[in-house]
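Input record (one chain):
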Amino acid sequence: LDAFTAETGITAQFVQLSSGPALARIKAESANPQADVWLGAPSENHIVAKKDGLTIPHTGGNLASLQPAFKDPEGYWRSFYMNPMAFAINKDILARSGASMPKSWADLLDPAYKGQIQMPSPQSSGTAYNIIASLVVLMGEEKAYDYMKKLAPNVQTYTSSGTAPSKAVQVGQCAVALQFSPGYFEAIEKGFPVDVVFPKEGVWFEAPAVSILKGAKNLESAQALVDWLETVKGQNVYTEKQTYFYPVLAGAKLGKGMPEFESLKTIDVDPIWAANNKKRLVEKWVQEVLSVK
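The corresponding structure, as predicted from the sequence alone:
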């Protein structure tokens, strides 16, 4: 946002929340919005916000140049970067434990990882729901929940934040972290003993979105921010600021050590399906998985 302000002269304040609490706050404040833009959170959350009448369309900027998967056809939301799901492995802990480097989702069921995995909780984190939805698409719903129940004994803790696992794995609080990849590349750049693994079965990638809130008090400034995010200059800020996000526009730069996105095996998850099934799948996770020890 500092780069946006430097270029446009428009000041912006940012309140950081996980996607669940953010959506709840937007709903609670809908009669008198205290924000103009919802910046971030996977696109299925923005689909819910659209359905609930919390956002308004904006068709300006580079909307037309984005791939269909990265935008609402009516302009209610658009994605502004991508992050693939991945594992981070603390190499020092792995060496001491004698466990092998995991290459797949199936490998994480190895008893050698008992109590050594951290992942976020879908009760508060959109990142965690991305994990659930991707496993359902990969395995089918019944097998995915069987898998998560088998994985549970290996999970040390389900964190409230979607980025907490990467912080834990880099300092040796766990051997394996599950979340999106940016925090891992940042840890490597800082010299922590971390490897990044993209599981061979394939991964979903999040495409966090931006929406303008209904009743925005600074509408023109909100539109200017959305438009700026979709410029190559705006996208290059991700690399300049070492965010390790993948840009959604061709021609933007990649961060140090990041493989080309096209080299990764990804899976397609329909964001509308993900949005429509989120409440049910999260409740099922709470009932069937959370209590497993």
